[in-house]
Design brief:
By secondary structure, the protein is mainly β. 0% of the residues lie in helices and 65% in strands. It is built from no helices and 9 strands. A hairpin with a 2-residue loop joins strand 5 and strand 6.
Length: 201
Amino acid sequence: MADGGHGMMGPATQVAVTHPYTPPPDGMLVVETILPVVSGRASQRLEILCNLSLDRRARYPERVLGTHATAARLAGASLVTDSTGQRRIMVEGELQVFAWCLGRDGTFVLEETVPIQREVPLPPGDGETRNERVTVELVGEPSCGPGTIVRNGEELSVRVPVFIQVEGEVVGERRVFAYAQSNPNTLQPASWHGEDDPDYD
């Protein structure tokens, strides 16, 4: 017998909760409940290698004087599973990256909007869940490492390592089955007052 609602049980009710479902013993009632559960949490420091293209005016810089990243934001997240069954949170967003360079004709600043698309692995789950929802957030501000000049064929760019801290959480629904059995021999009859209570009639 299954009941998806909520009810009250007598003082002699015995309850056992289990997941997943197992057949109940004779004489027991089964109550199925859907509970929200956290099915995964992850926190990781991500390194994003950002390549800032050099325009023709500054094609031959001498060195990179400084780097900076700002305006980091996450646009969304999704739950993905690879071929081995490893669950990951796919994080997407963008940030602004700057590089201050010294060229032949003085200093100049490179600026570019760099996309973020990285995966954060989740630890193994402890049960089956459904209707999962993913939330992610940035922790703190992005930081940068020193920039370097990189040549790719005839093209030059400034490579800037950017570091961001990301935290993610997966919340889903889990089916939980409660088994209850009442002992009618120990149940007390309901009454409005006891024998020693004054009778006001």
